[in-house]
Amino acid sequence: MTTVLKLGGSVITEKETPETVDDAALQRASAALGGSSGRLAVVHGGGSFGHHYAASHGVSTTAGTRDDVAIREIHGAMKRLNAAVIDALVETGVPAVPVHPFSGAYRRSDGTLRFPEGAVATTLEEGFVPVLHGDVVAHATEGATILSGDELVVALAEALSADRVGVCSAVSGVYDADGEVIAHIDSFDDVAAAVGASDETDVTGGMAGKVRTLLSLDAPASVFGVDGLGAFLDGDDPGTRIG
Ligand code: IP8
């Protein structure tokens, strides 16, 4: 059983204060992961680390930069967050190891992502828990652009033929127009009015983008809050099941 899990940046950091880990939330998430079994690849988002520097340098998934200072600042912040996540996971007995996308992933000029999937697959097969993160990556003809954790989750899930995908977010699931968590989504059209419009090519477009992208996966996905993480890792479907 291979599981790809995203820990949202807004879950594990205090989003309003630059470079601040939400220690309590990270410890809760790590404690849940400490009890999990099977093959697990973790991806975390940027929260108050990467997004802060990406915004200050005007870099996004589509707006590139040729400024090496910007690349070092964004990547450096993400490495610091990654180290904090790994430290917390190691404390709970998870054999977590870092995988930094900038060192091996890149985009072609048409925006398609290439990343070292063999390295991640081998790391998993050898019993480690690779911990990847949203990052800045070289982008042919654009300099460098942002790779979001969501995009990485989808690419990893496909490359590893994951059995399950989990997105641990700051909210308890996908909400309907009345503010109730939707238990199951199998068609974007059914929830489009509730989650808002989404550009089909935008994988980082908030909840609408997440739903659309997760629906395109072969593996079932779940969106849940940190309270649901333990249940998800035990094989349940907390929050919203997508697909
Ligand atoms: O928080 C963004 O990843 P996300 C990563 O998953 C950076 O969108 C570097 C801003």
Automatic annotation (TrEMBL):
InterPro entries to which the protein is assigned, alphabetical: AceGlu_kinase-like_sf, Asp/Glu/Uridylate_kinase, Fosfomycin_R_FomA-type
Domain Aspartate/glutamate/uridylate kinase residues, every copy: 1-215
Keyword hit for Kinase: yes
PANTHER family the record matches: GLUTAMATE 5-KINASE, ISOPENTENYL PHOSPHATE KINASE
Entry GO MF terms: ATP binding; isopentenyl phosphate kinase activity; kinase activity
Subunit architecture: Homodimer.
Species whose genome carries this gene: Natronomonas aquatica
Positions contributing to substrate binding: H51, G149
Positions contributing to ATP binding: K6, L7, G8, G9, S10, G46, G47, G206, K210
SUPFAM superfamilies: Carbamate kinase-like
Name under which the protein is recorded: Isopentenyl phosphate kinase
The entry's keywords: ATP-binding, Isoprene biosynthesis, Kinase, Nucleotide-binding, Transferase
